[in-house]
Amino acid sequence: MVKPLPHSLVPFLPSFGYKLVDLSGPTNAEIKGRVLTRLVQLAMRWVFDAEPVARLRKLLALINQIEDRDTAVEVLESLLLRPAQR
């Protein structure tokens, strides 16, 4: 049998509980929004580049390509296949 612990040791006992985590992940719209946000950030950074117009044209083409996609997998596919299309 286990004897009760002395009262002086009770503060040192770990207390275990449950932590609920939502594993559903972001929706397709949220992923697409994040990608578009990053592309806009790139556009703002490239404004001060040596050749901003050329870079921004490429970026706008990519944004147009992603805008037509509905799912996160299609957006990822667009981003991964874009360098191969050059």
Number of domains: 1
Helical stretch tally: 3
Estimated structural class: mainly alpha
Q: What proportion strand? A: under 5%
- What gross morphology would you assign? elongated
Share of helical residues: 40-55%
Q: Alpha-carbon distance between the termini?
A: 74 Å
Unreliable spans are none
Largest sheet: none
- Taking all Cα atoms into account, the compactness measure Rg is 25 Å
* SSE topology string: HHH
Q: Write down how many β-strands occur, each being a DSSP E stretch of 2 or more residues.
A: 0
pLDDT averaged over residues:
80
3D architecture notes:
The chain is built from 3 helices and no strands. It has one domain. The chain has helices at residues 28-46, 52-67, 72-81. With 86 residues, it is mainly alpha-helical. It is 52% helix and 0% strand.
Which features does this protein show?
3 helices; mainly alpha; elongated; 86 residues
Write the topology of this structure.
Elements: H1 28-46, H2 52-67, H3 72-81
Helix pairs in contact: 1-2, 2-3
In short:
The chain is 52% helix and 0% strand. The protein has 3 helices and no strands.
